[in-house]
Design brief:
The protein is of the alpha+beta class. It has 5 helices and 11 strands. The longest helix has 15 residues. Bound molecules: flavin mononucleotide.
Amino acid sequence: MIDLLPTPLPDNPFETLTAWLEEATLRAHQPNPNAMTVATVDADGTPSIRVVLLKALVTDLGYLVFYTNYQSRKGQAIAANPQVACCLHWDALGLQVRVEGIAVPSPGEESDAYFASRDPASQLGAWGSDQSRPLVSREALIAQTLARGRELGLPESTTLAEVNPPDGVLPRPAHWGGYRVWARAMELWVDGAARIHDRARWERPLVIADDDQAQPGAWRAQRLQP
Ligand SMILES: Cc1cc2nc3c(=O)[nH]c(=O)nc-3n(C[C@H](O)[C@H](O)[C@H](O)COP(=O)(O)O)c2cc1C
């Protein structure tokens, strides 16, 4: 188990989040220690949540990065309302992290670099799936994926198990990329004896300018009753 939070509380909660994620990764209690629930709000006000993988954490600026299809339900929700909430939970460590913030598409070069680092089959999958749209059949989806792969120059012999782009990588589809979740608030929760858990919340002013540049202020922290 992890110790209770220190007093005084850390100035920047991202340092603790980074340490916890490293610890969860090291202990390997769960296959995806970076699994993160992301909540969005559709244009009509309906909330929805799903798990994604937290792929990067930038401590000094205070944002999280995940990758997805920009035309998916979550992508459409974020386009209409960029306010999101995220939650990570490491049950075996007795820890929870909650983040509230604003999602902004990652710069194209950053998404390109991450896309290129994925294995070619995952790259093809991003081209093949119109995420969140109705599916006719699994066979039709596989045929659609392979047809799009051929349009991108993959050989006729390609299967989902054997994807070998001539240049080693496929280009990134414009509808696929990262989101930076700029945190406006973060809550850290540590399991405590007799359900007297340790809970603290950090908040900071956050403005996102028209050019997607974030202007965060300083963090202020306080403990909350559990
Ligand atoms: C462990 C786990 C990791 C996942 N990681 C991602 C991810 O990184 N990006 C993504 O788009 N979907 C990921 N998914 C699938 C999403 O949960 C979700 O089904 C998909 O993104 C469609 O969501 P939407 O229709 O709300 O947009 C993951 C699912 C699980 C269970």
